[in-house]
Amino acid sequence: xxxxxxxxxxxxxxxxxxxxxxxxxxxxxxxxxxxxxxxxxxxxxxxxxxxxxxxxxxxxxxxxxxxxxxxxxxxxxxxxxxxxxxxxxxxxxxxxxxxxxxxxxxxxxxxxxxxxxxxxxxxxxxxxxxxxxxxxxxxxxxxxxxxxxxxxxxxxxxxxxxxxxxxxxxxxxxxxxxxxxxxxxxxxxxxxxxxxxxxxxxxxxxxxxxxxxxxxxxxxxxxxxxxxxxxxxxxxxxxxxxxxxxxxxxxxxxxxxxxxxxxxxxxxxxxxxxxxxxxxxxxxxxxxxxxxxxxxxxxxxxxxxxxxxxxxxxxxxxxxxxxxxxxxxxxxxxxxxxxxxxxxxxx
Length: 347
Fold this sequence. Notes:
- The active site is at 232.
- Residues 226-338 form the 3-hydroxyisobutyrate dehydrogenase-like NAD-binding domain.
- One of its GO terms (cellular component) is mitochondrion.
- This is 3-hydroxyisobutyrate dehydrogenase.
- Helix 5 (119-127) runs parallel beside helix 6 (152-164), helix 9 packs across helix 12 and helix 9 (227-255) packs across helix 13 (324-338).
- Helix 6 links the parallel strand 5 and strand 6 (169-172).
- The chain is α/β, with parallel strands linked by helices.
- The strands form 2 sheets. A 6-stranded parallel β-sheet has the order 3-2-1-4-5-6, with helices on both faces.
- The termini are close together.
- It has 2 domains: 26-225, Rossmann fold (3-Layer(aba) Sandwich), CATH 3.40.50; 230-338, N-(1-d-carboxylethyl)-l-norvaline Dehydrogenase, domain 2.
- The radius of gyration is 21 Å and the shape is globular.
- The model is unreliable at 1-44 (pLDDT under 50).
- The protein contains 13 helices and 9 strands.
């Protein structure tokens, strides 16, 4: 069996924090330290969260923990069980109400965060004429944060329809960091806004909210609507392709008789080093905390890797770039997704 692993995978963004000329830290400037008892939070309105799957569940949990205790978190997912578990888990931090539709969440919330698997789900959440976001009464000041990894065209269509209906402000804010980062509240965010929080009140509002779910040092404002997604898709493209390359390199190195730990150390000390090598190593026993060393614990399903690489391939082709590496990788990952032995496992 191929040792290719599709793991909790995303690389860190290591560029300097926004506006490094300031003498204040980014947390000091925007008051995004983790909340403590008695902390004053600027935004007091209710928040909605749509999509409480593996990532959304943990992100919504952090929102409830860090948003004002007097405000209500409104949640919706097709899984009522997941909603109830979340309510039971974080209800002690403040009110949590389970809604019956995206429309209901929207009507009760000043900020709505969405985290769904694919573009088709995002379209249903936002554009459904009976139960979607656009079916709700519009509020030009309502903020929508789309955290899903979806295609850029769908993102822009949703944003344009939100704007045309005067239903609110739509920003693509995809995340990186996997389930671990979602649970810890240390996600990276890539935001489709042209100006950062020091220049744009909307970006400042976005920044303050996503600090509940992510690290301030790992928040970037990338440009116009859709550029956050472009940045995220590019990141995933690199990370997933790198995982497959590491698997193949380790496989032939070990077959030649090189000790797996020695081979890892050689690569780590040389130009082949990467975040994936240290965090999602494909060989059991090399990195104690990697999924491969923990029974190949599932952190990112193979079918989702196929989706993300496909988004990269499509994005590249749309601007005239031949995604040769992605085409090779998606064929490999599709085999993993189709194999009953690996469809729900990363071994």
